[in-house]
Structures are given as structure tokens and as C-alpha cells.
Amino acid sequence: MKVHGKPMRSIWVEPDGWSVGIIDQTRLPHAFVTLRLTTLDEAAHAIRSMQVRGAPLIGAVAAYGVCLALRGDASDVALERACTHLQATRPTAVNLRWALDEMRQALRPLSPSERLTAAYLRAAALSDEDVAINRAIGEHGLGLIESVWARKGRQGRVNVLTHCNAGWLATVDWGTALAPLYLAHDKGIPLHVWVDETRPRNQGAGLTAWELGQHGVPHTVIADNVGGHLMQHGEVDLCIVGTDRTTARGDVANKIGTYLKALAAKDNGVPFYVALPSPTIDWTLEDGVRDIPIEQRDGRELTDISGRLPSGEVVTVRVTPEGSPVANYGFDVTPARLVTALVTERGVCEASTEGLLSLFPERRPVRGTGT
Q1: What would the pLDDT profile of 186-201 be if each residue is shown by its tens digit?
Q2: Please, what is the average pLDDT of the chain?
Q3: Which residues cross the membrane (predicted)?
Q4: CATH number of the 2-129 domain
Q5: Which of 127, 131, 211, 264 is 20 to 30 Å apart from 121, CA to CA?
């Protein structure tokens, strides 16, 4: 995608050939700042503090975090220590675990002297794979938007509601939920995106709106509780969101508030789609409400808010009374019954066990083995 007209990804290896560049997403939309990661601890901090966020991008940063760790010590102990340290940074997004497992599998059979070069090659391959996966998600999701446009007689515009940020800032490039929107816009379909602010961190207002603006996609930022009203009045043709973890039966964990959007969509007959790369599927879980761990984050994300003054200065202010306790749940789970369809790199399927297995038949248990 582009920033001020310049193509770029959300993570890259710096010209020195070993340090890792990222966009500090905590500074957006008021300032575009890039950071250089040079150590395991810096990579872990970037994930934990949400300088990088979004399940696919977290996985890519974790992979490169392993590379940085092995620069000083490529032993078995160091490899495992790095993976364990990175795994602990964010509990909900399954891509983090997946990427670290991929790095372990690639590096464990090698001698310590071979690991560093192999680690950078594998991390780069994982990043390239993410770009290809997200582009394919975009192609499959584009068909859903084209169908709506055709049903409307190619008149007016297609109104899409999204929640949080599932664009290229949340991945290595393209995004998941936003990839179909970029392709539709580039194809000339008149598109308008309702962007939920997504409290408490405002990833919609601060990140999704910023990247849609960079790409020239028409959009409007709305308060989180406006979506149901818009659906009641026919102002939403479809909803599409991302997911940080999807169970084997199609339950999805996404940013807090997603469940309420799905309920409103169901009540108003609005299709509710979830875009996901296959590494986001946790095949070990069935019941998302019961089994997906929900991250509880620092209460200051809820009590404090940052913004830019007319002078240009960015400040943080408190919006709740001193002493009032807060609970800051980062995610909620939308049951499969509320999801119209899942959009993956292999196609669109029903949000169910059979739906997912129809696209990923290699995951179907082998008869007689119990596996």
C-alpha cells in the first residue's frame, strides 16, 4: 500500500541487512513515525505496547524478533527462550503462536551456526506469504461487494461497515477485511465505508480512517454505537471485520464490540462477513466463548485518551473520575451462528466446521486414527 504516495509495507528489514523497521502505530494518525528494532526485548515491547498490532503483523514481528534474539546466541536454549518470551506478549491472537511454531520447526533441526541466516529467510518468507494470503482474501471478498453492487442495479454506492483496523496496518500488506474494499475501490465500484471509532484505543478512528484516506477510499468515522441505527435505516449493505482467532467451528474473536455489531446485523438482515487468513484458525478449539482467552489490558487505555490540540501538540487527558475502577477487555467472541460467511485465501465458506473443512480438507481427521 502507499503512504503519501510511496509504496511500503508495515514491516521491513533495514538497509543494514539485520535490524527491523516498523511503523509506530501508537503515534498515528497525528504523526507518521518509524522505529528500528534491534533486540528481542524491543520486538517484544513493540508487540505488547501495540506499536504493532493486528494478528498477522504480530506474527511477522515475532518471527523477526526470533532473528534478533539469535544474533547474540543461536543455541537451543536461546531459541526456546526467545519464543517463550514473545509468546507471552499477547494471549488472544493465534498468529503469534503459529509464527513462532513455524520458526521453531524451521530452526530446530539446524546447527547453531546455520540458524541466523535461516531465521531471516524464514521470517521474510512468512511476511511474503502473508501478503499473498491477504491479496487472495481481497479477491474472494471482492466478489461479495460486486454482488451487492449488481443487486443495487449499479446505482448509488455500496455502504460497508467495519470495526477496528483490519487493513494493511494490521498485516504485512493489503489487510484482511479491508483488502476487498481496496480492490473494489480500485475497480471503480462506488464504495463508502462506515468506520467505527473502536474504543478504547480508537483503532478505527485513528488507523482505519488514516489508511483509507491514504488510499482515497470514501469513508465516515462514527461512534461505536451508531452502527445499529444505520442498519435500521438501510445505510449498511454489508459488514466485514477481521479476527484474531477463529475456532474450528467458525466462532471468531475480534476487537471488543464486534459481537454487538453482529447482533445488530442479524436483527436487520445485514450480511456479516469475517475475513481471515488461515493462520488465524485455531483448529484445537471448538467453543470460542468458553475457550478463547480474552486479553484484559491496562485500564489507562480506557481512562485516558490522546488527541491533538489546535496548536498541533498531542496530549493525553483523563476522561473518567479519579478512583473509578475500570475493566478493559480487549476482545469479544462472535458465535458462528451470527457470521454470514468466512472469507479466506482459499475462498468463501459457511461459518461452521464443515464450511472450514470444505476449504481446508487436509484438516479433516483421518478415519481410524482419531487424529
Answers
A1: 999 999 999 999 999 9
A2: 95
A3: none
A4: 1.20.120.420
A5: 211
Residue list, annotated binding site for substrate = 53-55, 90, 203, 254-255
pTM metric for this prediction: 0.93
**Residue 369's pLDDT is what?**
55
Q: Which residues are catalytically annotated?
A: 244
When pLDDT is averaged across residues 105-110 and rounded to a whole number, the result is 96
Q: Are 285 and 291 in contact (CB under 8 A)?
A: yes
Residue whose entry in the numeric block shows the C-alpha cell 452502527: 227
Please report, in range form, the residues annotated as the binding site. Answer: 53-55, 90, 203, 254-255
pLDDT of 371 strictly over 60: no
Domain locations in the chain as residue ranges:
2-129, 137-363
Q: If one looks up domain 137-363 in CATH, what number appears? A: 3.40.50.10470
